[in-house]
Design a protein that fits this description.
- The chain is of the alpha/beta class.
- The chain folds into 2 domains: 180 residues, Medium-chain alcohol dehydrogenases, catalytic domain (Quinone Oxidoreductase, Chain A, domain 1, Alpha-Beta Complex); 160 residues, 3-Layer(aba) Sandwich (Rossmann fold).
- Helices cover 31% and strands 27% of the residues.
- The chain has 13 helices and 20 strands.
- Strands 3, 7, 8, 9, 10, 19 and 20 form a 7-stranded mixed β-sheet that branches. Strands 13-12-11-14-16-18 form a 6-stranded parallel β-sheet, sandwiched between helices. Strands 4-5-2-1-6 form a 5-stranded antiparallel β-sheet.
- The longest helix is centred in the middle third of the chain and has 15 residues.
- The chain is globular and about 70 Å long.
- The structure holds NADP nicotinamide-adenine-dinucleotide phosphate.
- NADP nicotinamide-adenine-dinucleotide phosphate binds next to helix 1, helix 5 and helix 6.
Length: 375
């Protein structure tokens, strides 16, 4: 029987990762296809579900090389937040790509038989996965499963940021974790579309990487002149909208301060004790730092900090716009939307303690590609 990677939180506050045998899926409706999943990325959003908030530094391995089992303790406050999933063995993996090996009777499903497709639908760390045709993206001729594995989450999120910017009346963007896989994609989109982008990074080598990729505004949060350099870059681009994947800590507040300072520099600005009337917005779209978001004051009263997620965005813009965005991803799959992986692992290899310690860091340029079914 095919294997599927599972994440279970046991009632004794222990996370258990394992491979489970599951029945071979079949198309459950005329509009479903079965994909042999040949490649699926391990994204930060997958790690949240995979690790369930467990302390992976205390993880222990058991089982065999083919059927590894990893366990790790979960602290009491985290356990309380996980109440809804205790006892449920959950499949993981938001997206992936592979070959359609069975198809329902509809013409749309039949047309995909034998084709390489990318799919979004969860449970992609599975050898085989049944998905509705609407959740598939046929890959261009010649594209491999690895080319298409990360077709949805990061590309659509980066495109969604630019759409959100336009829909909310802004003309340029600030982005934190500029050198992340997503950040590099966003930089390529903005360069191609002529959108001003301020890339925030936290290490000089990340700044050098983005510079080599043509980024025009890069600021390093570890540099002593960070606040001044950020203000200069925001003044140069006029970016009053930021997307922040870090979340916790001081960065969102530093961005708002820099926006306000950049606005104050504009010619003809009159002093107001309420600050500038231009609305400054930071969307937190990740949780790389799970600590509290610290906001100083000093950026007036026209500002907002809120959450941003891909799926509500897709719902908001509607199917016609989503189809256009997906088509752009397919058209620019190996250029604008190319992802790079440092390692390829089978599902069993992905459950080794060494591998977990590596991809668990979510470090720049260390993305892992899981190969549930080779081919
Ligand atoms: N809201 C949504 O719908 C949505 C959709 C897609 C992605 N995302 C988010 O987008 C982010 C990037 O995803 P990705 O796949 O591009 O990630 P990635 O390639 O794995 O890169 C992660 C980046 O985050 C940096 N980082 C990690 N921990 C950090 C911290 N505490 N403070 C500052 N930087 C930190 C790393 O830099 P170092 O090398 O310096 O550690 C690295 O550049 C993730 O947070 C993900 O959850 C959100």
């Amino acid at each position: 029987m095919p294997l599927q990677l599972r994440s279970l939180i046991r009632p004794d506050a222990t996370l258990e990762l394992s491979l489970a045998e599951v029945p071979m899926p079949e198309p459950a409706s005329p509009d479903e296809v079965v994909v042999r999943v040949e490649a699926a990325p391990l994204n930060p959003s997958d790690l949240g579900l995979l690790f369930g908030g467990a302390d992976m530094t205390k993880a222990q391995a058991s089982g065999s090389a083919e059927r590894p089992v990893v366990t790790a303790p979960i602290a009491p406050p985290v356990m309380a937040a996980m109440a809804a999933r205790v006892g449920q063995s959950m499949p993981v993996g938001n997206e992936g790509a592979g070959t359609v090996v069975a198809a329902g009777s509809s013409p749309a499903a039949q047309a995909l038989l034998g084709r390489k497709v990318a799919a979004l639908g969860g449970a992609m760390y599975s050898e085989y996965r049944a998905v509705p045709v609407a959740q598939c993206l046929p890959l261009p001729e010649g594209a491999t499963a690895a080319d298409g594995a990360s077709c949805f989450v990061n590309p659509l999120t980066a495109l969604g940021m630019v759409d959100t910017m336009r829909n909310e009346g802004y003309g340029a963007l600030v982005h934190t974790v500029g050198a992340s896989n997503l950040g590099q994609m966003l930089n390529r989109i903005c360069l191609k579309d002529g959108v001003g982008l301020v890339n925030i990074v936290r290490k000089p080598e990340q700044a050098a990487l983005l510079k080599s990729q043509g980024a025009q505004h890069i600021v390093d949060s570890s540099a002593p002149d960070f606040q001044a350099a950020l203000t200069d870059a925001i003044a140069a681009t006029g970016a009053m909208l930021a997307f922040d994947a870090i979340g916790g800590g001081r960065l969102a507040g530093q961005i708002l301060l820099a926006m306000e300072a950049a606005l104050a520099r504009q010619p003809g600005q009159e002093y107001s004790r309420y600050g500038s009337s231009t609305h400054k917005q930071v969307y937190i779209y990740g949780s790389l730092d799970r600590g509290p978001i610290e906001l100083p004051r000093g950026f007036g009263m026209a500002w907002g900090v809120g959450g941003w997620l891909l799926f509500p965005f897709l719902q908001k813009v509607g199917p016609a716009r989503v189809q256009q965005l997906k088509q752009r991803v397919a058209d620019e799959l190996t250029t604008t939307f190319a992802s790079h992986y440092t390692k390829e692992l089978t599902m069993a290899q992905a459950l080794s303690l060494d591998a977990i310690a590596g991809y668990g860091k979510m470090a720049t340029g260390e993305k892992v590609l899981v190969r549930p079914a080779a081919g």
